[in-house]
Amino acid sequence: MSSEQQAVARARKAFETGRSKSLEHRIRQLKNLQRLFTERQKEISDAIKKDLNKSEVGTQLYETLGLEGEISLAIKKLKEWAAPRTVEKNLLTLSDTVYIKPEPLGVVLIIGAWNYPWAVTIQPLIGAIAAGNAAVIKPSEVCVHTAKVMEDLLPVYIDKELYPVVTGGVSETQELLRQRFDHIFYTGNSMVGKLIMEAAAKHLTPVTLELGGKSPCYIDKNCDISVACRRVAWGKYTNCGQTCIAPDFILCEPSIQDQVIEEVKKSIKEFYTDNPKTCPDYGRIINQRHFKRIMTMLDDSTIAVGGDNDESDCYIAPTVLRDVKPEAKVMQEEIFGPLLPILSVSGLDEAIKFINKGEKPLALYVFTPNDKVIKRMVDETSSGGLLANDCLVHYSVSSLPFGGVGNSGMGCYHGKFSFDQLSHQRSCLIKKLNMEGVNSMRYPPHTPKKLGWARFFILNNVDLGWIGRMALLAVLAVVAAVVLQNYLL
């Protein structure tokens, strides 16, 4: 038996003991996870510095702070989330108990990504723990140092049998995918997402796929271009452009292109100084393979800002490309790096048409003071999320579901959505062995009179208060007696 098989078997055996189901156990595990981020911040930050050149403050801001908030929310709301949820009744179930009971799925596989290794790996884990599942955690092998820290620290703080960490590369992941899970949660690219889905299909395992794509950014000529470009520059160059919801490209009218370039240039200098290479807040490309992939995208485009690079340091300066054509190399795939192409469109109509020609993106950004422009973007496009007049920050709102649509993913998470995504919503209807007269309409022999009664009970949905329900119960008792009498005649 491989080590991956053993980890899954241990997790399932631990889940079958039932200990992960109690709310007390879930809350205890979440509190322990929270302690990890307060007690081991230095080890976390040091590893991410080695992997992605993120500063300690940047690591807390973009990785662990949000996780601490998610854990606090889950602890505070768990009793409410896990409670049976009453639902609306119809006339036939008025005297019955009808509710939805969230229950754990079982053993969840969480496959993390390397760009925000803690945020996108632990956030689903929070949902898995809160929902009462066991979870096998597979951090990305690309972030070598962070994966090692996860492997070392997580078993110290949370139940190592219920939540084992499995490290390794492609072969280890393939071995995990050969095992049976009750849900697979993957964050990464669409190409691998298809392989995950194919493997899951063999066991009919449901999946959550958090993918990506080319997230468009439309800048209206009538907006405050200085503020818009400042926010776009922050969203684009944070983590050296290696963000799944980074604005991938700008769409704007030709008349404002020069101003957009100039304002983005100003913001780059403000954020990262005249020499971003020496700025502690500017990251690095994860490895040389990705460095080369990004650099080839520059071949047929015109550089307006930046372009400096150093392969030995995996450094690419914040770069702006002007007059980019739709057929350019940089427009053929998600950039996932610090290149910002600008494409000219004649206005909103052409921008919407261009957006709709491509795959549905994970995020869509629009900068405008005009509510009608925003409404048209909302009504006439489709994307995982839409954000007007800012970038990225919708990710931080726990009351919003985060996820893609179509090629950018399926399923969603954050806050209660994580809990629901990793729970089975079990339908429960509890009846008593009385009121049999009402049931007689469904029993053979079937007659037009019985159909008439069935139509009455099924098609008449009424909203009743407590007093109304009590009165209707009395009426139903009489009706049941009448129906039964007719049935017997």
TrEMBL record:
The active site is at 210, 244. GO terms for molecular function: 3-chloroallyl aldehyde dehydrogenase activity; farnesal dehydrogenase (NAD+) activity. One of its GO terms (cellular component) is endoplasmic reticulum membrane. Keywords: Endoplasmic reticulum, Fatty acid metabolism, Lipid metabolism, Membrane, Microsome, NAD, Oxidoreductase, Phosphoprotein, Transmembrane, Transmembrane helix. Residues 5-425 form the Aldehyde dehydrogenase domain. It is found in: Endoplasmic reticulum membrane; Microsome membrane. Coiled coil: none annotated. It catalyses: octadecanal + NAD(+) + H2O = octadecanoate + NADH + 2 H(+); dodecanoate + NADH + 2 H(+) = dodecanal + NAD(+) + H2O; decanal + NAD(+) + H2O = decanoate + NADH + 2 H(+); a fatty aldehyde + NAD(+) + H2O = a fatty acid + NADH + 2 H(+). The chain crosses the membrane at residues 466-488. It is a single-pass membrane protein. Pfam families: Aldedh. One of its GO terms (biological process) is fatty acid metabolic process. Homodimer. Belongs to the aldehyde dehydrogenase family. This is Aldehyde dehydrogenase. The lineage of its organism: Eukaryota, Metazoa, Chordata, Craniata, Vertebrata.
